[in-house]
Specification:
mainly alpha, binds zinc ion
Length: about 80
Amino acid sequence: MAAKKHAHKKCISVFKKLSEYIDGELDEKTYEEMRVHIKECVKCEVCLEMLRRTVDLCSNMKMLRVPDRLREQLKLMVHGPSNP
Ligand SMILES: [Zn+2]
């Protein structure tokens, strides 16, 4: 059997640093280590994709629309009891 030696401990440390990986906040050595691991590990690859998409979605939503809660707060400021 030529089963690949897979260290799950590595996955956990990769998960912890995924957002830093996306933001490019890691030093070259750590980045390279993670890149090699993610290339060989489907689980980590999927997680990276999901996180990347979530980050994209969040930054897009901020630009495209005002959250309902904020809109409610603005409405309260204009028509609310504190400003009769
Ligand atoms: Zn992994």
